[in-house]
Write a structure and sequence with these properties.
Immunoglobulin-like, 17 helices, elongated, alpha+beta, 3 domains, 472 residues, 5-stranded antiparallel sheet, 4-stranded antiparallel sheet, single chain
Length: 472
């Protein structure tokens, strides 16, 4: 951080104090190692799913499509409607519980390896590294005056950033507007205002967050960094510097004996700071800015190899494990502590409940609405008739024929058609005339039940309650 000195002022002189703390741009050094490979694995895995899933065909349509205009949400063979909002609630509960569980066990691994902010920052930094060079080259470029070479590199970098951001925004909107249709609209320059707005908005968000804000999002904008302390304890696996082994730190030759010099294993190369995407010094202990990406572990292990010291000066460990000298096996066994078991049990129960509900979900929905214009009337042979409107929703992607029936009063019968056909993923309103013979029941309202069942699948059936009114 840069400090802004405040000059003493005279009696009548005003002092202006800026509340913004200026900060040096972080130019992270490229790193190789086990955890770097894992980060790139998650970059590839998440982006193959994100960019590829939108183009995957399924049953003659897009495999995953959130059609807000038609109010249908397609997830492979599953068709959901706004009435299925409870499943979204279940998904959010599962996500929250998973976050609590994984954080209690292994800290901010989500942030360091699979969070969209981390993934896109990694992609943008890769482009920056390819165009402008490694950390030292980028620092020299930043310090150099603007000229043709610098302008060309910056233009190429921002052009590639912009192209990736636009493709990301286009793909995002492609989950709400069929992506092949959206591509045709883009090619013919006939995008609607809403598609245009959301493509540009999401592109700008990706470009700004991954290209410029980067660690600022993790440190100041993301609330997770602030409440992580409530989910951490001394048995949480975090990126840890072994202070007892590393201190006192200091430079030395490879052939020197650190014990003879009174030094620890840390050679004070500061590479762990140079590779950190948030610019912290892990040797100062646990800090809320640490996203658990383990870049410092990779570079420190590489340095330890070069100077001939054992690896693990910076490693994934627990605070109790470091303080008590536990082995990795002992620290892993402590993962099964009460809070983790409670989180696991609740997460398992909620997940099974949501999956069971989806498995047992009936792909048919029925609403019964009384005809307000004719509550009850007498028809031929003194029979009493009530009229209803049945809203029948076919939640499958094949046309269905349903059989209608009614029960609840002696001699009750459905005088309108007992069979109705509904197109795939459509809602059809059907008028149902229900009659009872004279004297079937006393005057007043009486409970009845409608049953709608699929003609070719007895398991698909829905019963809905209503009332039958007999006039005085």
């Amino acid at each position: 951080m840069k400090t802004i000195p405040i000059q003493p002022a005279g009696e009548d002189e005003e002092i202006t104090v800026s509340l913004y703390a200026a900060q040096e741009k972080i130019q992270a050094r490229a790193v190789k190692g086990v955890f770097a490979r894992w980060r790139w694995f998650f970059v590839w895995a998440t982006q193959l799913v994100f960019y590829g899933l939108a183009w995957l065909p399924w049953n003659g349509r897009q495999a995953v499509l959130f059609d807000l205009e038609a109010r249908r949400f397609y997830l492979f063979d599953l068709v959901l409607y706004p009435q299925d909002f409870v499943y979204l609630t279940g998904l959010l509960v599962i996500s929250a519980l998973s976050l609590f569980l994984f954080t209690a066990v292994a800290g901010r691994l989500w942030c360091g390896f699979a969070c969209p902010q981390t993934v896109y920052t990694e992609l943008f930094m890769w482009i920056e590294h390819r165009v402008e060079g490694d950390r030292s080259a980028r620092l020299r470029l930043d310090a150099a005056p603007m000229g043709p070479a610098k302008l060309g590199k910056r233009a190429l970098k921002h052009g590639l950033w912009g192209a990736l951001a636009l493709w990301t925004g286009f793909t995002f909107v492609g989950y709400f507007t069929p992506i092949r249709e959206l591509a045709g609209l883009v090619a013919s320059l006939s995008l609607g205002p809403w598609e245009t707005f959301w493509i540009l908005f999401y592109s700008f968000a990706t470009y700004g967050n991954a290209g410029f804000l980067r660690e600022q999002v993790c440190k100041y904008m993301c609330p997770y960094a602030r409440f992580q302390s409530a989910m951490f304890d001394r048995d949480t696996m975090i990126v840890t510097y072994d202070e007892a082994r590393g201190e006192p730190r200091g430079a030395r030759s490879k052939k020197a004996d650190p014990k003879a010099l009174g030094l620890g294993s840390c050679v004070d190369c500061t590479l762990c700071v140079q590779v950190c995407p948030t610019g912290i010094d892990i040797r100062k202990g646990l800090q809320y800015e640490c996203i658990g990406c383990a870049a410092c572990i990779d570079v420190c292990d590489d340095v330890m190899d070069k100077v001939g010291y054992p690896r693990g000066l910076i490693r994934f460990a627990t605070q109790n494990g470091i303080a008590k000298g536990w082995s990795r096996a002992q620290m892993v066994r402590r993962a099964l502590r009460p809070r983790v078991l409670v989180y696991s049990g609740i997460l398992l129960a909620v997940s099974l409940a949501v999956l069971g509900s989806l498995w047992l979900r009936t792909p048919l929905k029925v609403d019964v609405i009384r005809d307000r214009g004719a509550l009850a009337r007498e028809v031929g042979q003194g029979r009493i008739e009530n009229v209803y409107r049945l809203q029948i929703m076919n939640a499958t992607e094949t046309a269905q024929t349903y059989e209608l029936s009614v029960e609840g009063l002696p001699g009750i019968a459905l005088e309108s058609g007992a069979r109705v056909q509904v197109a795939p993923a459509e809602v059809r309103a059907v008028a149902a005339r229900v009659q009872v013979p004279p004297g079937a029941a006393a005057s007043g309202p009486h409970p009845i039940q409608f049953e709608v069942r699929a003609e070719h699948d007895e398991r698909v059936r829905v019963r809905e309650k209503s009332t039958f009114l007999i006039p005085r």
